[in-house]
């Protein structure tokens, strides 16, 4: 059976890093008999430039039809002054919401070869393997009402609403308990229950649900402490479950534990396991178009796609071991360059992964 992958490259380094993941897909097709069809569509600033909308109807249609979606990144200074609903980021939020991609898995794994690249001491991060489960279609990102208005005193004020429904909390917590049960069975729920009503409900609902998962050890942390603990002693965590905004911030923080944000993949899943896969990082306008971006987060996102949406766990492992292999051979993009290693650009890194994958096939 041929699977269909929608390719949404987006802006900035998006097209450069996605091009390398496409090379990997080409290699899987040629050397591993992976039957796949790719179809590209526009999202973000690129879509705004051609159609005026960050998520054109045709892109959403393709995303709905496809078996899985690979996304690069969106956004950049060119579009920052547009009215908010036309900005590239709104396209990303809209596709997540329209497809019901509530479950965002953001693993932070330290590859042994990169122990020296982390800003933390090697013994603090050695063998790190944690997973942040971020709620992706609710919370303050989507709560209504929101807006900017003039107050009674004539001053401008802006407001957002942080709202979580019980059903949304149950859904993300259940996903996190299920996944934790297949890992080290330790789940830490992160909230701000000492201050926020929405977090109070979050904690209550997660605690109640834990009754159904007696084998998973549940703990709770306030988000400020969690941020500190992540850099103090990250290995105390196995799975972290948290809301949309806290998860966004904590996952960039976790990224740095692994050496570079250019290493962190992610999956955004709906209730049936269909998903959109994208690196955790953004469009990196500061390095776009220079063949220096790290494509590994995107290639590792492809591996997550193979595992979670396409039922190809063996191919996923092959891709991940090819990445491990090029790191062991010393290939490093500028973001993770360490002494005594081989500095390469985006394309060369992608080609090295493809070559490693091909070598194992034959
Ligand atoms: P960013 O993640 O794009 O960049 C942060 C820093 O990390 C930059 O110095 C960048 O050069 C570096 N970096 C990021 N990815 C890298 C890679 N693959 N290889 C090497 N270095 C890398 O975050 P930002 O600068 O805050 O945001 C830039 C734009 O991206 C904004 O418009 C923002 O809204 C957007 N954004 C998009 C997504 C997404 O599409 N999922 C995620 C985050 C930010
Ligand atoms: C991410 C990004 C997005 C988010 C932005 C670009 C909308 O930062 O995927 O982490 O905040 O979710
Ligand atoms: Mn982010």
UniProtKB/TrEMBL annotation:
<feature type="binding site">
    <location>
        <position position="248"/>
    </location>
    <ligand>
        <name>Mg(2+)</name>
    </ligand>
</feature>
<dbReference type="GO" id="GO:0003862">
    <property type="term" value="F:3-isopropylmalate dehydrogenase activity"/>
</dbReference>
<comment type="function">
    <text>Catalyzes the oxidation of 3-carboxy-2-hydroxy-4-methylpentanoate (3-isopropylmalate) to 3-carboxy-4-methyl-2-oxopentanoate. The product decarboxylates to 4-methyl-2 oxopentanoate.</text>
</comment>
<keyword id="KW-0432">Leucine biosynthesis</keyword>
<keyword id="KW-0520">NAD</keyword>
<comment type="subunit">
    <text>Homodimer.</text>
</comment>
<keyword id="KW-0560">Oxidoreductase</keyword>
<feature type="binding site">
    <location>
        <begin position="282"/>
        <end position="294"/>
    </location>
    <ligand>
        <name>NAD(+)</name>
    </ligand>
</feature>
<keyword id="KW-0100">Branched-chain amino acid biosynthesis</keyword>
<feature type="site" description="Important for catalysis">
    <location>
        <position position="141"/>
    </location>
</feature>
<feature type="binding site">
    <location>
        <position position="224"/>
    </location>
    <ligand>
        <name>Mg(2+)</name>
    </ligand>
</feature>
<keyword id="KW-0479">Metal-binding</keyword>
<dbReference type="InterPro" id="IPR004429">
    <property type="entry name" value="Isopropylmalate_DH"/>
</dbReference>
<keyword id="KW-0963">Cytoplasm</keyword>
<feature type="binding site">
    <location>
        <position position="252"/>
    </location>
    <ligand>
        <name>Mg(2+)</name>
    </ligand>
</feature>
<feature type="binding site">
    <location>
        <begin position="76"/>
        <end position="89"/>
    </location>
    <ligand>
        <name>NAD(+)</name>
    </ligand>
</feature>
<feature type="site" description="Important for catalysis">
    <location>
        <position position="192"/>
    </location>
</feature>
<keyword id="KW-0464">Manganese</keyword>
<dbReference type="GO" id="GO:0000287">
    <property type="term" value="F:magnesium ion binding"/>
</dbReference>
<dbReference type="Pfam" id="PF00180">
    <property type="entry name" value="Iso_dh"/>
</dbReference>
<dbReference type="GO" id="GO:0051287">
    <property type="term" value="F:NAD binding"/>
</dbReference>
<keyword id="KW-0460">Magnesium</keyword>
<comment type="pathway">
    <text>Amino-acid biosynthesis; L-leucine biosynthesis; L-leucine from 3-methyl-2-oxobutanoate: step 3/4.</text>
</comment>
<feature type="binding site">
    <location>
        <position position="134"/>
    </location>
    <ligand>
        <name>substrate</name>
    </ligand>
</feature>
<dbReference type="GO" id="GO:0005829">
    <property type="term" value="C:cytosol"/>
</dbReference>
<keyword id="KW-0028">Amino-acid biosynthesis</keyword>
<feature type="binding site">
    <location>
        <position position="106"/>
    </location>
    <ligand>
        <name>substrate</name>
    </ligand>
</feature>
<feature type="domain" description="Isopropylmalate dehydrogenase-like">
    <location>
        <begin position="4"/>
        <end position="353"/>
    </location>
</feature>
<dbReference type="InterPro" id="IPR024084">
    <property type="entry name" value="IsoPropMal-DH-like_dom"/>
</dbReference>
<dbReference type="InterPro" id="IPR019818">
    <property type="entry name" value="IsoCit/isopropylmalate_DH_CS"/>
</dbReference>
<feature type="binding site">
    <location>
        <position position="224"/>
    </location>
    <ligand>
        <name>substrate</name>
    </ligand>
</feature>
<protein>
    <recommendedName>
        <fullName>3-isopropylmalate dehydrogenase</fullName>
        <ecNumber>1.1.1.85</ecNumber>
    </recommendedName>
</protein>
<comment type="similarity">
    <text>Belongs to the isocitrate and isopropylmalate dehydrogenases family. LeuB type 1 subfamily.</text>
</comment>
<dbReference type="GO" id="GO:0009098">
    <property type="term" value="P:L-leucine biosynthetic process"/>
</dbReference>
<feature type="binding site">
    <location>
        <position position="96"/>
    </location>
    <ligand>
        <name>substrate</name>
    </ligand>
</feature>
